[in-house]
Amino acid sequence: MTEPHQLRTGGDRGYLRIATEEAFATREQVDVFLRMIKDGTADKGMVSLWGFYGSNPSERATQILHRLLDLGDERIADMDRTGIDKAILALTSPGVQPMLDHAEAKAIAARANDRLAEACQKYPARFIGMGTLATQDPEWSAHEVHRCARELGFKGVQINSHTQGEYLDDPKYDPIFRALVEEGQPLYIHPATPPDSMITPMLEAGLDGAIFGFGVETGMHLLRLITIGIFDKYPDLQIMVGHMGEALPYWLYRLDYMHQAGVRSKRYARMKPLNKTIAEYMRSNVLITNSGVAWEPAIKFCQQVVGEDRVMYAMDYPYEYEASEVQALDAMDMTPALKKKFFQTNAERWFKL
Length: 353
Description:
By secondary structure, this protein is an alpha/beta fold. It contains 15 helices and 9 strands. Helix 1 crosses helix 2 (44-53) and helix 6 runs parallel beside helix 7. The longest helix has 21 residues, at 102-122.
């Protein structure tokens, strides 16, 4: 077994490392979560997720919260220690989407975007921004898409899956998609804990978060959008998901077979014929990052199934921060050209860096 190599920034291995799903938080965002947990207005997922990260005294919770709140020298030092050249940053899940006071949610989202823009201006060679939206107000969110692109210099938008149990395939969210297409920017659908309508059996088993519930819920969200025909309506739209595609690449054969069977049988009113198969949309309109999955077999399978131009590196900082994972991915049995696509040039292409 070879000794772990030293991790450096600057491209000494033939590529830069661009981490495409990295999180930050603002103190006022976290304080609202804690207030909602205390006053009983939080859903079960927030109680589980932010009841832990927002107030648990364990080393994991306190360290992650500290790192989330930092957009300065400590974060840069952590990047340097693991050889991360650039981080694409977005407000941590669930953003402001669970907040019941819409005016408060919009104000916190706008301030979070401004805060991130300041950090990107301070560290322009290291930080790249994705905007956050208060999806409770789709028209406001569409305006914020434009502001983030044109005034703040951001390169995409992150939405943390469902908004109080509602999904983006609802027609009322169309202004957000229209704005993204007008700006030529990708949408990153990041996990949130499942809504109360589906979380209970996961929660009682401790499977509601990143271990399982996140992926199941977010994969379903992307599948809802594909099967409602979002890419027939917006053929140029690109949607990113993390965690190796939230399991969809591994289910593609069955997804396609059963979707086509459902369309032919007219079993479901909303399941209409589409211009392409689900697999074809995955190869033309879906982008995948490996956030939290530093696993060579999964990365290679995903490259094979959706295309080597569509799979990108992410660390998932600070929830996953392991130097050994970076070293393992550096050591993948992969051509230098493909490894450069994975770590660097795919991100540069799709985020227009």
